[in-house]
Amino acid sequence: MIRPSQPTAVSRPIIEAEHLSKTYTLHKKTGRLKRERTTVEAVRDLNLAVAEGELLGYIGPNGAGKSTSIKMFTGILSPSAGRLRVAGLEPIRDRKQLARRIGVVFGQRTTLWWDLPLRDSFALLHRMYAVPDARFAANLKRLVALLELEPLLDTPVRQLSLGQRMRGDLAAALLHDPAVLYLDEPTIGLDVTSKAVVREFLAELNREQGTTIVLTTHDLDDIERLCRRVVVVDHGTVAYDGELNALRARVAADRTLVVDLAEPVPAIAVPGAAVTRIDGPRQWLAFPAEANAAALVADIAERYELLDVSIRDADIEEVIRNLYTG
Amino acid sequence: MAEQPVEPSFERRFEQRTPGAVATYLFTARMWGRSAMQYRASLVLVMVNSLFMASLELLGILVVFGNVSTLGGFSLPEALYLYGTAQAAFFTSDLLFTGTEYLAVRIRMGTFDSLLIRPVGMLPQVFADQFTPRRLTPMIPAFAALIVGLAKAPVHWTLLRAAMVPYTLLVGVVVFGAVWVLVGAFQIVAADASEVMNSVTYGGQFMTSYPLALYGRNLMLFLTFGLPLAYVNWQPTLYVLDHADPLGTPSFLRFAGPLFAAALWGVALLAWRAALRHHRSTGS
């Protein structure tokens, strides 16, 4: 398993899961009175260590155990087995204390008060989390500015657009300065502009405040733009944990070199690359991600007259698909 | 790995204390109340309607006494007092604690989890859920019956008898509070069971998730409130009105309300904790 380099400041991981498992027992009706017991392992032997200040992409197909594990990290579900610490706390036992250190945003469900102005939800959180007044005022000011919420503060939440509401939810989750922010599909259903605002905000939050972010998403653009480290969960366990680039290299080994030649020629024959497509004077060559692209280009340039070259990384979506199926 | 002290970096958060149960209840209920006030016209209509329904029930008692002068040994004022204490205690508890009734819906919608991620107690949040001033109006006929009954009943007033009146109400509200907790615990377990079932068998389209909450509500209320009522309302009222118990129960039972209330709360809290534990192990 490939792991990214640890931050230099040696500290205990803010999320540490060791051999974490979650088993559900289901009672299935098989007759009028008979019931059949089946157990489903939603999470099995999951190991994860997240350092403070990381921005982690937490992805996987539906039903892979993502939500179940996030629910364990946030103190909603109790693990069946294994050891779990978040911010040094045991999520279920220390639920209230943990709640003060985490923020949670569910993309499809708002925690804001539907019928009341946005401002009122923030005021409630102020009291609920007992945020000191000066701190609250400063945080509110900062978040309102960053998320452009000023004109929306007095609007009832039900009247906000999806993107506006998401920005409101983000602010709500951060007013108490959580150390860890969990995001479940924060960009789902948002238009391109709103997506960009949310992504930029998250990147800045992570950079400036050092907030650890665990991002669950099906939008691989989110991952590509925000996360260096990616954890892929499949069949209830960690299928991949490492850098996004390394994931590309590991799964879809090939990058693509596109060359424009002076004139059409038969398929170029160079060691370490294979032509996948020819269109007039343009040819596409697949080569392993870890291979030296410069050397390959030099090799070709030696034998052909090159007008232009470009290199394309494997599409992340393709990479993930390969990983799930492979 | 050996236990290490928590890194100081995790501790840069505030040291202030979490709000207590009463504070949590009050600010949550206030948000719900204000939400309800956003739809003023509808609120007024519903309030008028529930006032009407509750008054109709009272009218029924008056009609019965139009034909007979005593019922089970109780005169009209006595019956009004008995009815008034029971209703007043019930509707006060309904105003304060019925949030537990919405738990099945919350679990089905997945919004129960958003209560679990708050740094405050679960019960105060749940009690205050969907708080609405709508529930104030049924208290009007209840208290009217109580006051009229008291004024007209031939009570031989002593200090103790007078103190028994607010006491009856208080114990009643407390006992009913415990019953609402039990209702909540049941809803969690029932909703979880059907949710987990549905996700496997019917893909969630089957709507029978809340057997008690939706269908047998009246039956459930009768069964769950019937027994406690005997202790919180009937027994102290026997004392105030100086009646012997037709069932011949010993007279110390007239004052056993708090013991009963404490025992019921004990059971209710155990059930509540078990339900939460159950939810956390099944999820949905």
UniProtKB/TrEMBL annotation, chain B:
Keywords: Membrane, Transmembrane, Transmembrane helix. It comes from the Bacteria. The chain crosses the membrane at residues 43-68, 80-99, 136-155, 167-191, 212-232, 252-272. This is ABC-2 family transporter protein.
